[in-house]
């Protein structure tokens, strides 16, 4: 049979089999399925799944405002026709590309779909380490007693202050969300499109205020 040297940790074997489920069928190695389940068990012992909390509201608001900005520049670029404006048009094109490549925008698009943000914006990820820490999991999540104490202190502080914003501001944030939703519904009834709703001065003002509070939070 195939002997596996001790040099292959269960993680890489596990990933390998994960990536190519057809591999076991192709190589015809019996007992591969058993190995996978063993690797799964091993992974469970090392670390539990991280807890990810998405700020979908913040992400969708940012995405909305950012896309409105992109659209504005695109409209400007469309007006610049002909050879004389080629340079200006390409400058705007670069601006649009840069905005589309913005880390926060990329993250917002992911989080809105419920996917993990590659740059970590609009989400918090808490890795809960398993009881039996060994091998690479211990290296991944070293929790020194001091940091633990500090984390506990911080979380107590957080509970008291609920983030960096006061209760009044938290209430304001909630009210702004409702106001924006209500305002947009009214504008839609008047026959405005989603994009036009976003351009509404009042909506933009509220969204900007929300961003301020979110940053403080």
Please summarize the sheet with the most strands. 2 strands, antiparallel
Question: Biggest sheet, strands in spatial order?
Answer: 1-2
Principal-axis shape = globular
Number of helices: 11
How would you classify the helix and strand content by structural class?
mainly alpha
Spatial extent as radius of gyration? 25 Å
Q: Write down how many β-strands occur, each being a DSSP E stretch of 2 or more residues.
A: 2
Helical content band: 55-70%
Fraction of residues in β-strands:
under 5%
The helix-strand sequence is HHHEHHHEHHHHH
Would you identify the regions where 5 or more consecutive residues have pLDDT less than 50? none
Q: Distance N terminus to C terminus? A: 58 Å
Query: Roughly what is the average pLDDT, rounded to an integer?
Result: 76
Task: Supply database-style keywords.
11 helices; 68% helix; globular
In short:
The protein is mainly alpha-helical and 217 residues long.
Structure description:
There is one protein chain. This protein is mainly alpha-helical. Helices cover 68% and strands 4% of the residues. The protein has eleven helices and two strands, in the order αααβαααβααααα. Strands 1-2 form a two-stranded antiparallel sheet. Helix 1 packs across helix 3, helix 4 crosses helix 6 and helix 9 packs antiparallel against helix 11. It is globular, with a radius of gyration of 25 Å.
Give the topology:
Layout: H1 10-19, H2 22-27, H3 32-46, E1 51-54, H4 56-79, H5 86-100, H6 103-112, E2 123-126, H7 136-140, H8 145-161, H9 167-189, H10 194-199, H11 201-216
Antiparallel strand pairs: 1-2
Helix pairs in contact: 1-3, 4-5, 4-6, 4-11, 9-11
């Amino acid at each position: 049979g195939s002997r596996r040297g001790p040099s292959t940790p269960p993680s890489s074997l596990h990933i390998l089999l994960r990536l190519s489920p057809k591999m076991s069928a192709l190589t015809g190695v019996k007992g591969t399925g058993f190995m996978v389940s063993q690797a799964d068990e091993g992974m469970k012992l090392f670390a539990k799944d991280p807890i990810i909390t998405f700020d979908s509201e913040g992400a969708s608001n940012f995405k909305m405002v950012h896309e409105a900005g992109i659209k504005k520049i695109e409209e400007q670029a469309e007006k610049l026709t002909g050879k004389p404006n080629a340079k200006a048009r390409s400058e705007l094109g670069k601006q649009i590309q840069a905005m589309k490549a913005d880390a926060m925008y990329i993250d917002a698009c992911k989080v809105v779909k419920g996917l993990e943000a590659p740059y970590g914006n609009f989400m918090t990820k808490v890795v809960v380490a398993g009881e039996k820490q060994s091998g690479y999991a211990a290296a991944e999540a070293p929790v020194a007693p001091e940091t633990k104490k500090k984390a506990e202190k911080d979380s107590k502080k957080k509970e008291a202050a609920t983030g960096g914003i006061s209760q009044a501001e938290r209430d304001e944030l909630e009210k702004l969300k409702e106001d924006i939703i209500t305002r947009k519904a009214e504008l839609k009834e008047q026959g405005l499109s989603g994009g036009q709703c976003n351009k509404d001065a009042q909506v933009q003002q509220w969204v900007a205020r929300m961003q301020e509070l979110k940053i403080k939070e």
